UniProtKB/TrEMBL annotation:
It comes from Phytohabitans aurantiacus. Pfam families: MaoC_dehydratas, MFE-2_hydrat-2_N. This is MaoC-like domain-containing protein. Belongs to the enoyl-CoA hydratase/isomerase family. Residues 38-127 form the Peroxisomal multifunctional enzyme type 2-like N-terminal domain. Residues 146-255 form the MaoC-like domain. The lineage of its organism: Bacteria, Bacillati, Actinomycetota, Actinomycetes, Micromonosporales. Coiled coil: none annotated.
Length: 267
């Protein structure tokens, strides 16, 4: 089967990029998502993720891509007031009948070279089927839903201006979150909330339920199963799972928008 992807980019790591973790940047992100969230760890690499992803596929296919999954492996908190460096690479391209996934890995280090976090960003090119099986895929998430009733549920109203505020705070200016016309052209009913904004909100709620601070969070991951619109309500549901927590998020109609969520804590 022919395909439009550039295979030579797989496992070709970018040069290092520096990012200064300023108090203003941390504050802006917290204000956008309703409070401090460990998902701020994605911000230093936001531009770089887009840069490496754009080399893997033709520009016209970028209108068909959605954020499928995010996996954050957190070793140390980002040092506020200091510079960090990030590198990224497309590490896998995997196809199926409904489309093709591109897995992007990110590594963030402090000034001493110590690893602060690793990320696996999974992009899904809808309607671009291939038989590709190149490189590695992101770590697996649970395939079965949690058992029993949730330990806690918490609702959060997504204000109509959340996409614009999150774009400014995160650096993610994908027009499907900002322009109704572009969003509709991509097959959406209108602008949608960034998946990472929903995850940032859910992460705060999970950590509060676990009575744990950001420094105890070792891994945070989820699948973005459906879009959610600004003005809707995100309800995060949490289950205890041994030393970890499972979670998901549903919209006002009860449709799952965040699935297979996992939060692993250090002792």
């Amino acid at each position: 089967m022919t395909h439009p992807f550039e295979l030579s980019v797989v496992d070709r790591w970018s040069d290092e990029r520096a990012f200064e973790v300023t108090p203003d940047a941390v504050r802006a992100y917290s204000e956008a998502v309703g409070g401090p969230s460990p998902v701020f760890a994605v911000v230093p690499a936001m531009d770089l993720v887009f840069a490496v992803a754009e080399v893997a596929a033709p520009a016209d296919l970028r209108t068909q891509v959605v954020h499928g999954q995010q996996d954050l492996i957190l070793h140390k908190p980002l040092p506020v007031g200091e510079k960090v460096t990030v590198r990224a690479a497309v590490v896998g391209l995997h196809g199926k009948r409904s489309g093709t996934t591109a897995t992007i890995q990110v590594r963030t280090r402090d000034a001493a070279g110590d690893l602060l976090n690793e990320q696996y960003v999974t992009e899904f090119y809808r309607g671009v089927p291939t038989d590709l099986a190149v490189g590695v895929a992101a770590p697996r998430l649970p395939s079965e839903p949690p058992a029993g009733p949730p330990l806690r549920e918490a609702a959060y109203h997504l204000t109509p201006d959340l996409p614009s505020r999150y774009a400014a705070a995160s650096g993610d200016h994908n027009p499907i979150h900002l322009d109704d016309e572009v969003a509709r052209a991509a097959g959406l009913p209108g602008v949608i909330v960034h998946g990472l904004a929903s995850l940032a909100i859910a992460a705060r709620i999970v950590l509060a339920a676990a009575d744990a601070g950001d420094s105890r969070l070792a891994r945070l991951s989820c699948r973005f199963t459906r879009p959610i619109a600004p003005g809707d309500t995100l309800t995060t549901r949490i289950w205890a799972d041994g030393t970890a927590y499972r979670f998901d998020g549903v919209d006002g109609a009860g449709t799952t928008v965040l699935g297979a969520g996992v939060a692993e804590l250090r002792p």
